[in-house]
Write a structure and sequence with these properties.
The protein is an alpha/beta fold and about 325 residues long. The chain has a single domain, classed as Aldolase class I (TIM Barrel), CATH 3.20.20. Helices cover about 40% and strands about 20% of the residues. The chain has eleven helices and twelve strands. The chain has a twelve-stranded mixed beta sheet with strand order 8-9-10-7-6-5-4-3-2-1-11-12. Helix 2 crosses helix 3, helix 7 packs across helix 8 and helix 9 packs antiparallel against helix 11. The longest helix has 22 residues. The protein is globular and about 50 Å long. The mean pLDDT is about 95. Bound molecules: iron/sulfur cluster.
Length: about 325
């Protein structure tokens, strides 16, 4: 039985396999300070890792998928990607805010996919990203990547800031003929008090807007979001994938990956050189490394609530 089926039927997991994907976050800080950012900023006393050989070796042994998610692409990030590719023969995914990716054209052939963050029309994006002109930079990166023969994906954090002008934003995305993936903003400790969040009613209204626009991927993970959206989600026919639940509605693909499944199958390789489950990688607490015991403990703790939830609509 796969993990998604285990959650649906038992609500508890009994084993931990190698991670299916690892997000690599080599930098402890960023050039932006987005309102929604899930990371803590301006950390001091970060131990600098000079040699990433053992971590790269671990990734190769796991035979996992790797995404370079942060926060900006730097020389050491480029070296890491090149060394990982040499050791594994694999490409990586990358997420960028548009400011750094074009600086390193020599490794563009090593990208399996590229996500560029664009959070709405220019005015809304710049507010959410905390920097005037950052939207223009992101679009320039998209154009530059296309000119280089890549097929970048627009990655959007949907929020009360950008939903008001969502129609205009989607028109822009459609005109640019670029694929899009979006996620409703999560409320976490790192963005508390800084980022406006949706109420349940607002979230349902926003979700209907996303469904009625152009083709896209909507990614859901937060149990609170799924609970709020139950009256809508129940109307769809869902398929149980290995690590998620999916449905397609008029060209819009909805993928729900419960946090317990993310915990079991994903890891974060942090700037201190250690591996964490994603919920522990936040805020640089770094109290718990991703041992099998920790992974199972966290996944089963979250699974109790998610089991009841998925049974409501899958
Ligand atoms: S969301 Fe990404 S680009 Fe924005 S501050 Fe956080 S790490 Fe940087």
């Amino acid at each position: 039985m796969n993990y998604a089926m285990e959650l649906l039927e038992n609500g508890q997991y009994t084993n931990v396999s190698n991670p299916k994907y690892v997000a690599v976050t080599l930098e402890s800080d960023c050039n932006l300070f987005c309102k929604h950012c899930y990371w803590t900023h301006n950390k001091s006393n970060i131990p600098e890792v000079l040699d990433w050989s053992s971590q790269i070796q671990q990734l190769v042994e796991w035979d996992t998928e790797v995404a370079y998610a942060g926060r900006t692409l730097t020389e050491r990030g480029v070296q890491f990607i090149e060394r990982y590719h040499k050791a594994s023969g694999k490409q990586i995914g990358i997420v960028d805010n548009g400011y750094t990716i074009l600086k390193f054209p020599s490794i563009m052939h090593l990208y399996e996919y590229v996500n560029i963050s664009v959070d709405g029309i220019a005015r809304d994006h710049d507010v959410q990203r905390g920097k005037k002109g950052s939207c223009e930079v992101a679009w320039k990166a998209i154009c530059g990547l296309k000119q280089a023969g890549l097929d970048p994906i627009i990655s959007t954090c949907v929020s009360p800031i950008n939903i008001r002008n969502w129609g205009a934003f989607e028109e822009q995305v459609c005109e640019s003929d670029t694929r899009m993936s979006c996620t409703p903003v999560l409320g976490v400790k790192g963005n508390k008090g800084r980022m406006p969040l949706f109420s349940e009613t607002e979230l349902r209204t926003a979700f209907k807007k996303l469904l009625s626009g152009c083709g896209k991927l909507i990614k859901l993970s937060d149990p609170a979001h799924v609970r709020a959206l139950l009256p809508i989600l129940r109307d769809f026919t869902w398929e149980v994938d290995e690590v998620s639940y999916e449905t397609e509605v008029g060209g819009v693909l909805i993928s729900y990956q419960p946090l317990s499944l993310d915990t079991l199958t994903g890891r974060n390789l942090s700037w201190n050189g250690k591996f964490y489950v994603n919920v522990d990688a936040d805020d640089s607490l770094f109290d718990f490394q991703a041992t099998d015991k920790r992974v199972l403990e966290v996944a089963n703790m979250i699974a109790k609530e998610e089991h009841l939830l998925v049974r409501e609509f899958i």
